[in-house]
Every structure is written in C-alpha cells, then in structure tokens.
Write a structure and sequence with these properties.
Length: 446
C-alpha cells in the first residue's frame, strides 16, 4: 500500500514538473467605444465607403473623408482588440522555445482586423494600419529561442523595431487620438505596410538595463538580394526613473497601398525608406512620467522597381505598381505626460508634430503622384504640417477592466490637408484643414 502511494505521488510530481516545463497562454483585449468625429468616413459596417459616382450600382455613396460629423460604435478606441496565443517550453540551461500567434479583430462586428483597403464592407478605423489586411494572425506569428544570458531570437511575421518602441514611449497610447497609434507610417519607418514585417528575423538582448535589438527580413526575390529587404538596429538603456532608445531602420522597395479609381483596383507605390528615431522618458515622481521622441523619415526612389510586375494581385484585388519618384523628408516629434491622479484615475496628454519641409524635386510644392481620384480623398504626403493634441482619462474598475474618455484635435496645413471631390469624378475639389475626435469606451484584458 505504501509503495502504491509512493508511486502515485511520484507520478503526480513528475506530471506537475512536465506541465511546468511547457505552457500555452491565451490572452487578449476587447475594446469598444462610442466615437464622434468631424470630417470623417463611415463608422457603420453596413455602409460601403464608396464615391457618390458609384452609388447607382450598390445603393450607397459618400467619400472616405468629407465635411460633417460622424457618430457610431467603433472598435479599438484605446487599444486594438486582439486574441493571442503564446507558449514556451523549457529546454534546460536557461533556454526556452517560444512562440506567439496574435490576431487583431473588431468586436463591434466580429471581423478580422482590416483597414477596409481590401474589404469594402469593413468598419475598421479610416486611418488604420494597412499592414493589417485581414490575415489570420495579422498582428504577429513567430517562433524562436530565448536564453537568460544570450537573449531572444525569433523568426516570422513581427513588428518593426520602431513600432515596438512606440508602445513604450508614446504618452497617449490611444488608437483613436494618437497619430503614433493609428498612423502606422511612424511605426513602419515611413510606410505603414512596413510596421509589421513578414519573414523577419529579430534578436533582442537585455542586461543590467542595457538593450540591443536587431531585425532583418530578406526579400526572397531570385537574383535580387536587396529587393524588398528590411533591416533595423536599436540600442538603449532603461533603469530606475530614466529610459532612452535610439533606432535606425531601412527598407528597400517598401510597399504602400492606396485607393484607385475602381473598387477592385489599388495602387502600390514602391519607395525606399530610411528612418531614425530617438525617444526618452523620465519618471519625475511615482505618479508623473514624461515621454517624448523624434523621428526623421526619408522617402526615396525605389532601387529595384524595374523588377516588379506591373499587374499583380494581393488579397484578391488587382494591384497596379508605380514607382515613387519624389525624395522628401518627414520630421516627427512628440512630447507628453502620464499622471496617476488617484489609484484608479490616470490622465494622459500629448502634443504631436509631423512636417514635410520639401517634397518632390527642388522647389516643388507638392509630391508627385498625389492626384485626386474618383474616390474623393487622400491624405497628402506633400509639403505642409500636421499637428495633433490628444487627451485621455482612464478609470480603472479592476486590474483588467477600465473605462476611458478621449479627446483629440488635428490641424493640417499645406499639402497635408485632406482633399475631397465636391462634384462627381473629382472635377471640382476642396480641402479640409482639421478634424476633432471625442468618445467614451470600455476596455477589458484577459
């Protein structure tokens, strides 16, 4: 009897140890908000966002950006809703095998995360991150090895180093009002589609507050070793009340999808991008943290455009490739603070600036290729400025659930203004120089 009890105890202990060596965690965020916005597109998933010129064929109309106000129930007011799986297996000696699979989705409709670029019925945010286009695991899918001493090496679809860094150094991490969150070009080092990189190798090392990160994604094109490649490097230090990070990133032949003149055709503008980012944060008190940063983006002529097919498809739609001929800089800066007013109330505020001092050939006032289509709108990458103010108040109901209220203002000048067609076919146009966003919402993490 004693031997039987000992055997059962040993088997139970062994099973417990084996289970502890390997684990899988299911996690996620659900975020739904009531959002109001001026000069906005549709927030109703049943309304297809198309120009009035095409209304006769599908019964709906209206441009993506237009005068007036919009109010509706929207997903991702503060954080992008997501469902993820991550796991680890202890291999011994401080080494683990790890993996992550993560998808973004819209809880207001149940759809996979999608900007609507490839799905005309999507209710995703108008200025969403176009690196997310309805893939099953659109936010990440990678596997790798982690060692306590030597760091972590992963391979697969992963975030650009700059997108990783923005999550820690943006004072207002609210998707609806922070341009660093909803405009993926800043996290993508100049192009939204590069905010998340397919087929990437990433190395992360940390020791005594110091960190060094590397990212490289080969293009995979035959006989073209540089075509479509992305590389990045990061060094930094975070300890106590202070943190600072420096990053450099480059993509050869970066993609950028935009609307074209037909529902089934989209334009892919191919460019080279190089960007540098410097961020810092300081904890003045236990309740007050200041955060800020600067990014400089160079959008240049592609190196290997002649090797791209002129007629390809992606996501089931036709894709027309064009070469970006303009070389121009974008200067981005931000500063703000987070203040823990009470144990349950946190206030975050920030100011953001993005300016293009010159676009196109010397002396030109606008970028090449920035033409108004029948869709009725585009956000110019041309000479001008975009300034943003954002304020968010969070009220914690528990460690996992919070309510929030948000307010944002956007002011545009020069070629950064939104243009829209005032007549069918875009023959007569006008511009919008600003946008205001307000809303309340609820977020739950699990």
């Amino acid at each position: 009897m004693k031997k039987s009890l000992l055997a059962i105890a040993a088997m139970t202990a062994f099973a417990g140890a084996a289970q502890a060596q390997s684990s899988v965690t299911v996690y996620g965020i659900l975020d739904v908000a009531a959002i109001g916005q001026t000069n906005s597109g549709n927030l109703n998933s049943t309304a297809v966002t198309v120009p009035a010129a095409l209304a006769g064929s599908n019964g709906t109309g209206g441009s993506t950006i237009k005068p007036g106000s919009t109010f509706g129930i929207s997903s991702n007011g503060e954080s992008m809703s997501r469902l993820g799986f991550k796991g680890s297996e202890d291999l011994g000696g401080g080494t683990k095998a790890i993996f992550t699979l993560e998808q973004g989705f819209s809880p207001s409709t149940g759809e996979l995360g999608n900007t609507g670029m490839l799905n005309q019925n999507s209710s995703a945010n108008i200025s969403g991150d176009s690196s997310i286009q309805g893939q099953l695991f659109n936010r990440g899918a990678f596997v790798g090895l982690s060692n306590d001493k030597f760091g972590t090496l992963t391979a697969g679809r992963q975030q650009n180093l700059m997108l990783d860094n923005i999550g820690n150094y943006d004072p207002v991490t609210a998707f609806a009002v922070s341009p660093l969150q909803y405009s993926g070009s800043y996290g993508g080092a100049g192009r939204t589609d590069e905010a998340r990189v397919d087929g990437a190798l990433k190395y992360v090392w940390k020791s005594n507050g110091f960190n060094a990160n590397l990212l490289y994604a080969p293009g995979g094109f035959a006989s073209q070793t540089t075509m479509g490649t992305t590389s990045g490097a990061q060094v930094g230090y975070e300890a106590g009340k202070f943190g600072v990070q420096a990053i450099a990133s480059h993509t050869t032949d970066a993609m950028n999808l935009s609307t074209s003149t037909a529902l089934s055709t989209y334009t892919n503008t191919v460019v080279n991008t190089t960007a540098y980012m410097l961020t810092a944060k300081y904890e003045a008190t236990d309740s007050l943290v200041f955060k800020g940063g600067y990014e400089r983006e160079l959008i240049g002529t592609p190196s290997n455009f002649q090797n791209y097919n002129l007629a390809t498809t992606t996501g089931g739609v036709s894709l027309a490739n064009v070469a970006g001929q303009a070389n121009y800089f974008v200067n981005v800066a931000w500063i703000g603070a987070q203040y823990q007013l009470t144990p349950t109330i946190k206030v975050s505020g920030a100011y953001y600036y993005a300016g293009t001092p010159q676009a196109g050939p010397a002396g030109a006032s606008s970028c090449s290729g920035a033409t108004l289509t029948v869709f009725g709108s585009y956000k110019g990458g041309c000479t001008g400025t975009a300034q943003y103010e954002a304020l968010v108040v969070d009220y914690s109901l528990s460690k996992r659930t919070n309510l929030y209220a948000l307010l944002g203002n956007t002011t545009l000048t020069g070629g950064q203004k939104y243009s829209y067609a005032t007549t069918v076919g875009g023959a007569t146009t006008s511009t919008l120089s600003g946008q205001q966003t307000y809303g309340i919402g609820m977020r739950h993490t699990f």
